[in-house]
Design brief:
Belongs to the CGI121/TPRKB family. The chain has about 425 residues and is of the alpha+beta class. It contains 15 helices and 7 strands.
Length: about 425
C-alpha cells in the first residue's frame, strides 16, 4: 500500500510541477481540455510517465518531450489474453464485410460493363446509329474513368499543395471511414489534423517504455516531414520499434500474434490543439483555430457500427465546425468535446480485451515482465564491455561493478 501511495504522490508532484511550468508559456484555455472529462488523468509533461485511469482501467501516460510535447501517449498493459485473434480482426484490421462488399460491388460493376458491351455489340445497327452512339459511349467511359480517378485520389490522399486544410482532413476522414489500410499515407494529414488512434503490441517484444516512447517520437517525426517516401503511421511505427528491419520481420516481432499472452494497448493523441504545428515542414495554421480530430482506427470493425460508429460520425460532423472555430473559447470547448469522444472510443477498445489489466507504476516494473529477455541482453552487453575494455569477472564484482570499471578506463584514455 505504501509503494502505491508514494507512486501516486510522485505522479501528482510531476503533474503539478509541469502544469506550473507550462502555465507561463501559454495563456490559452485549450490546455485544460483533457482534464474536463470524468476520468482521473493529468497531462504528462517532460517525457515522464504518470498514472492514468479511465473508468476502471489503469495505465501510464506521457508526452513525447521535448520535440513534440503536445503529443500524448497512454499505455495499458494486459496479461493472460484469451482473444488475441479476435482483437486483431476487431481493432486492427478493417471489417471483412466492408472488403467483401467492395469486392462484390467491383465485380458487379465489371459484370454490368461487360453486359453493356455485349448488348451494344449485338444491337449494333447501321453506321449512322453507331456514330450517334459513339459519343455517348465515350462520355460514359470518360465519366467512369473520372470517377475511378477521383476515388483513387481520395483513397490515396493525394492532396495537392493548393488544397485547404479542410479538404485534406476530409480526404483523410473519407479514407479512414472506408476502412482503407493506407489511410494516413499523405504526410499533410499530420499537419492539418489532430491524429488520434491506438496500436496493439506484443508486450514481450519490448524491453522498456522509453524504447516505446522514442519509437513513437521517431515515427511521428518521419510522418510529419513531407518526403517522397511517405509511409503509413503503422509502417513507420513498427520500423522504428524494430530498428529499421524489414516490414515482415517487424510485423512478426511486434504485432499481435496467436501466442500473445501479454498485450500493450498504446493510445496516442494530441493534447494541445491550439499549439503551433509540430514541424516547420508541415502546413502552417493559425494558433487560434481548432484542428479537426482524425481517428486513425476509424476503419476497424469496432467502429463500423453501433456506439463506436455514432461517435465517429459525431467527430466527422464536428471537424468542419472545429476547423472554423476562431475564438479561443470555442476552440477549448471543441477540444473538450473531442477529448470526451476520444476517451469513449478508447474505453470501447479497452473493453474488447479479455485479459487482466495490470497497473504500471514506472518503467522498471514493466521491465520485470520480460525479465528473461532483458537478462539475456544485459549479459551479452556485459560480456561485450568486458572484452572491449579488458575487465575481468573479479573486477566486475567490486563495488561499482562493471559500470565503474568501464568509466575509469574511458577516463584514463582521455587524460
Amino acid at each position: 500500500m505504501s509503494s502505491s501511495s508514494s507512486g501516486e504522490t510522485r505522479s501528482q508532484i510531476r503533474s503539478n510541477s509541469s502544469s506550473n511550468s507550462n502555465s507561463n508559456s501559454c495563456c490559452c484555455s485549450c490546455h485544460s481540455s483533457s482534464n474536463s472529462s470524468s476520468s482521473s488523468s493529468s497531462i504528462a509533461r517532460g517525457g515522464e510517465f504518470i498514472k492514468y485511469e479511465l473508468k476502471g482501467f489503469t495505465g501510464l501516460s506521457a508526452s513525447l518531450f521535448p520535440l513534440l510535447p503536445q503529443l500524448r501517449v497512454d499505455i495499458f498493459l494486459f496479461k493472460d489474453i484469451k482473444n488475441a485473434n479476435t482483437l486483431r480482426e476487431t481493432l486492427l484490421l478493417p471489417p471483412r464485410q466492408q472488403q467483401q462488399q467492395q469486392q462484390q460491388q467491383q465485380q458487379q460493376q465489371q459484370q454490368q460493363q461487360q453486359q453493356q458491351v455485349e448488348q451494344q455489340q449485338h444491337q449494333r445497327e447501321p453506321t449512322t446509329h453507331t456514330r450517334s452512339s459513339a459519343p455517348s459511349n465515350n462520355s460514359n467511359s470518360s465519366s467512369n474513368n473520372n470517377n475511378c480517378s477521383s476515388s483513387n485520389n481520395s483513397n490515396n490522399n493525394n492532396c495537392s499543395s493548393n488544397s485547404s486544410s479542410s479538404d485534406i482532413a476530409s480526404h483523410a476522414l473519407s479514407s479512414l471511414l472506408s476502412g482503407s489500410l493506407s489511410a494516413t499515407v499523405d504526410a499533410a494529414v499530420w499537419g492539418v489534423g489532430r491524429v488520434w488512434g491506438f496500436l496493439l503490441l506484443n508486450a514481450c517484444a519490448l524491453l522498456s517504455l522509453e524504447q516505446l516512447q522514442v519509437a513513437l517520437l521517431r515515427c511521428l517525426c518521419c510522418c510529419c516531414q513531407r518526403s517522397t517516401k511517405s509511409k503509413s503511421f503503422f509502417t513507420e511505427f513498427i520500423l522504428a520499434l524494430s530498428g529499421g528491419s524489414s516490414i515482415s520481420a517487424a510485423i512478426n516481432k511486434l504485432t499481435l500474434q496467436q501466442d500473445t499472452r501479454n498485450l500493450l494497448l498504446v493510445s496516442f493523441s494530441e493534447t494541445l490543439p491550439c499549439s503551433s504545428c509540430c514541424s516547420s515542414n508541415c502546413s502552417s495554421s493559425s494558433s487560434s483555430k481548432m484542428k479537426p480530430l482524425i481517428p486513425f482506427n476509424a476503419g476497424c470493425m469496432l467502429f463500423s457500427k453501433g456506439e463506436g460508429r455514432s461517435i465517429i460520425d459525431e467527430l466527422q460532423l464536428s471537424a468542419a465546425a472545429a476547423a472554423d472555430a476562431a475564438a479561443a473559447t470555442n476552440a477549448a470547448a471543441a477540444a473538450a468535446a473531442d477529448e470526451e469522444r476520444r476517451q469513449k472510443l478508447l474505453l470501447l477498445a479497452l473493453q474488447q480485451i479479455e485479459g487482466e489489466n495490470v497497473p504500471l507504476d514506472n518503467a522498471s516494473t514493466y521491465s520485470s515482465i520480460s525479465r528473461s529477455l532483458q537478462q539475456q541482453q544485459q549479459q551479452q552487453q556485459q560480456q561485450q564491455l568486458q572484452k572491449l575494455y579488458g575487465v575481468s569477472n573479479a573486477e566486475a564484482q567490486l563495488p561499482g561493478g562493471l559500470h565503474a570499471a568501464v568509466i575509469s578506463r574511458v577516463a584514463a584514455r582521455h587524460i
